[in-house]
């Protein structure tokens, strides 16, 4: 029986470990099964110690599975050294939940003031915000002015819904450096989309992508107890499946746009997908992830009952180097935590840009 169970675990592990490279557009349930990968890592670890302690040659199978699945450990937990006083281009990304997220009976206005002040005081050179709310009709609610223009930032704001001259929400990129070009890659009818801005930094130019991919649309309140899970599991699975498929199609548009970028790319935002996903590993093949390079701990970024999710990320082209990555878990004004990274480079990016254009 032990031999049978070990063999089943090994085969199932291999299937799931390689399923992260299969687009949910072709096999929708692949994206749902990969959520079991952390459990498989733990089971293989237990089986290895059990079989090794019993001095069974069969211990080779869970050990091989652990070797093949080691990359999933790296995307889950890191122990990189903490860099003190990093210098370079600092980039922040934050899903601000329309600047009105409340909990424990807090007043909307108080939360808005707190999050606005924190963003205003944060020294990052680039600030990318998702689910951004702008109100030109009420001076105290003019977030672009309070967070950006009053303190010397340029900005690129792309409205997703609402009146651009009155009240609206969308996505925004604030920059201390000149923005020489901007655009929108796609949007849908909710708060999701991808925008970009080309930022001029002395003789170099970096393209900043701010992404908010299709939401999982899961009500965390409905999953906060066993009855809620039993009642909503079919609906939840359906939403997960739908989100996986839509994100896969959005991802192809995004990757094509980044391939045609004449500049070094930094991609940040709320990806609404865990590290054990086609979304994450598809991007990981093209770019590096700042958490893996310079992060510490688990880096969870979700601030609700499903606290164990890391769905906000900072990816970057390997011509850049990350000095520091941080998850700002002390900032709980939204249903996401902000994350930031500091970048440097030792080659003239403009030279790289010209070479790319010639090719």
Based on the model shown, name its key terms.
359 residues; alpha+beta; Deoxyribonuclease I, Chain A; six-stranded mixed beta sheet; 11 helices; 14 strands; disordered C terminus
Please render the helix and strand layout as text.
Elements (H helix, E strand, L loop, with lengths): L1 H18 L10 H4 L3 H17 L6 H9 L1 H5 L3 E2 L9 E7 L12 H14 L4 E10 L7 H6 L5 E9 L4 E9 L3 E9 L5 E9 L2 E9 L13 H34 L4 E7 L7 H9 L1 E2 H5 L1 E2 L14 E5 L4 E7 L11 E6 L4 H10 L1
Parallel strand pairs: 2-3, 8-9
Antiparallel strand pairs: 1-11, 2-14, 3-5, 4-5, 6-7, 7-8, 9-12, 10-12, 13-14
Helix pairs in contact: 1-3, 1-4, 3-4, 8-9
InterPro entries: Endo/exonu/phosph_ase_sf (IPR036691), Endo/exonuclease/phosphatase (IPR005135), TDP2-like (IPR051547)
Protein name: Endonuclease/exonuclease/phosphatase family protein
GO molecular function: endonuclease activity
